Every structure is written in structure tokens, then in C-alpha cells.
């Protein structure tokens, strides 16, 4: 098995950049799961993995927001880590991107959202201390020092989340050969697990809208997503 270190490095850089964009810079929605995961797939030459993983995670985390002191699960880390692992698993197997592979990546790495939340809480305290120091420096007329302190507050996000994302990409290369040993019935079951998870994610997204007919929308969304994914899968099997 050969590890694509360039892919690991690219995954880490993109994971770090969108982590900074999510918290401290620009905030132009590049860190949303669908965008972050699709871009990760593009960087790692596996757009289908990025797109389908990102679509499911976007629905699953739809409605989360970073409001004041309330920190939601880190959907960005979940998207970048999962899509990076899916892309490198596909590269390691040489079989290309498949629904079974997407299911495995999601099941193994979706918990990154909770890990990211814990890291966010630690970094929030660090960033708050630097922000107070930067404010004091600005009030003292030391504008250059204040700017440097603000920039230092961004670096831990880039480094830590970039390292975690790179580790997920690296793990994908080691997991890929193991997937080839799974029995065919299990792989078929995992392939059909993807539309099932997509339908649940669509239901969660509709339910979280707080609309008057949210249960109806949830059921319709789940059915439409399931139907669309099944049609795509059947077309791909021809």
C-alpha cells in the first residue's frame, strides 16, 4: 500500500483553511458541509465522494449556527474529515467511489463533529484571552501589536483542525485495503445504507425547520432523497 502524501497534505491545508473561515475570517459559507466536502473531493480527485458525503452531512447538520456563547457540533470538521477519508479510501482500493464506501466513511467519521466541538471550546478560551489583550493593545495605541494578537488567535484553528483532517485522510489509506476483505453481501448492505441515512438526514433537516407541517415535509423530503439516490445508484449499476 502506498500513501499519497500530497493528498494528505492537501486535505490538511483545506481542513485548516475552512476551520479558520468558519470562526474568524470571511465567513462566506465555504465551511458549510456541502461546500467544504465537495471542495475536498475536488482537491483529492474524487468529486463524487465529496459531493455525496457533503450532501448528507449538510442535511444532517442543517440549521446549526454559531450564536454567541452557544457552540454547535463542528459540522465543518465532520465534513472535511469524512470526505477526505472517503476519497483516500477510494484511492487506496482502486475501485473508485461507491455508496458502500461513503457509508463506511460516514459511520466511522461522523463523530468528528463532537470532537470538533470539544476543540472549539478549548480554543474559545484561548481566543478570548488574546482578544482581551488585543483590545488593551488597541486602547494603548499599539495597533500593530493588536493586529498580531488577533492573527495569533487564528493559527491554532488552522493547525489543529488541519492536523485532524490530515489524520483522517491518512487513515483512509490504511482502511482502504481492509475494505477489500469485506464479504460482498456486507458491501451491498452498506451500499443500501447510504440512501437510508440520506433519508434520515432529510427528515432531520425538515424537522429542524420548525414549520407548521414539519412532519409532512420531513416524510416527503426523506422519500424524495431516497428515491433520487436509488435512481442514481441503479443508473450507475448499468
Your description of this structure?
The chain has 238 residues and is mainly α. Helices cover 79% and strands 0% of the residues. It is built from nine helices and no strands. The protein has helices spanning 5-23, 33-43, 47-60, 75-93, 99-109, 112-139, 143-179, 184-207, 214-237. Helix 4 runs parallel beside helix 7, helix 6 (112-139) packs antiparallel against helix 7 (143-179) and helix 8 (184-207) runs antiparallel to helix 9 (214-237). The mean pLDDT is 80.
Characteristic terms for this protein:
238 residues
Could you write a compact summary of the structure shown?
By secondary structure, this protein is mainly alpha-helical.
Identify the overall geometry. Answer: globular
Low-confidence runs of at least 5 consecutive residues? none
Q: Number of helical segments? A: 9
Q: Compute the number of strand runs.
A: 0
Query: First CA to last CA: what distance?
Result: 30 Å
Helix and strand pattern: HHHHHHHHH
Oligomer: single chain
Q: Gyration radius, to the nearest Å?
A: 20 Å
List the helices and strands and how they pair.
Blueprint: H1 5-23, H2 33-43, H3 47-60, H4 75-93, H5 99-109, H6 112-139, H7 143-179, H8 184-207, H9 214-237
Helix pairs in contact: 1-2, 1-4, 1-7, 2-3, 2-4, 3-4, 3-8, 4-5, 4-6, 4-7, 5-8, 6-7, 8-9
Amino acid at each position: 500500500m502506498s500513501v499519497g502524501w500530497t493528498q494528505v497534505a492537501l486535505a490538511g491545508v483545506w481542513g485548516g483553511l475552512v476551520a479558520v473561515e468558519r470562526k474568524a475570517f470571511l465567513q462566506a459559507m465555504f465551511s458549510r458541509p456541502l461546500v467544504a466536502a465537495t471542495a475536498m473531493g475536488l482537491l483529492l480527485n474524487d468529486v463524487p465522494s465529496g459531493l455525496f458525503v457533503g450532501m448528507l452531512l449538510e442535511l444532517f447538520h442543517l440549521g446549526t449556527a454559531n450564536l454567541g456563547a452557544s457552540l454547535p457540533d463542528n459540522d465543518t470538521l465532520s465534513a472535511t474529515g469524512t470526505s477526505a477519508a472517503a476519497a483516500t479510501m477510494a484511492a487506496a482500493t482502486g475501485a473508485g467511489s461507491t455508496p458502500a464506501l461513503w457509508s463506511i466513511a460516514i459511520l466511522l467519521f461522523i463523530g468528528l463533529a463532537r470532537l470538533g466541538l470539544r476543540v472549539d471550546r478549548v480554543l474559545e478560551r484561548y481566543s478570548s484571552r488574546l482578544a482581551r489583550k488585543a483590545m488593551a493593545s488597541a486602547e494603548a495605541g499599539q495597533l500593530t501589536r493588536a493586529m498580531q494578537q488577533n492573527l495569533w488567535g487564528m493559527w491554532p484553528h488552522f493547525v489543529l483542525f488541519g492536523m485532524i483532517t490530515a489524520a483522517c485522510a491518512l487513515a483512509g489509506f490504511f482502511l482502504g485495503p481492509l475494505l477489500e476483505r469485506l464479504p460482498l453481501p456486507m458491501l451491498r448492505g452498506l451500499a443500501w445504507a447510504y440512501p437510508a441515512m440520506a433519508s434520515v438526514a432529510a427528515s432531520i433537516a425538515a424537522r429542524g425547520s420548525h414549520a407548521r407541517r414539519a412532519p409532512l415535509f420531513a416524510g416527503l423530503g426523506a422519500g424524495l432523497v431516497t428515491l433520487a439516490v436509488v435512481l442514481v445508484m441503479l443508473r450507475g449499476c448499468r
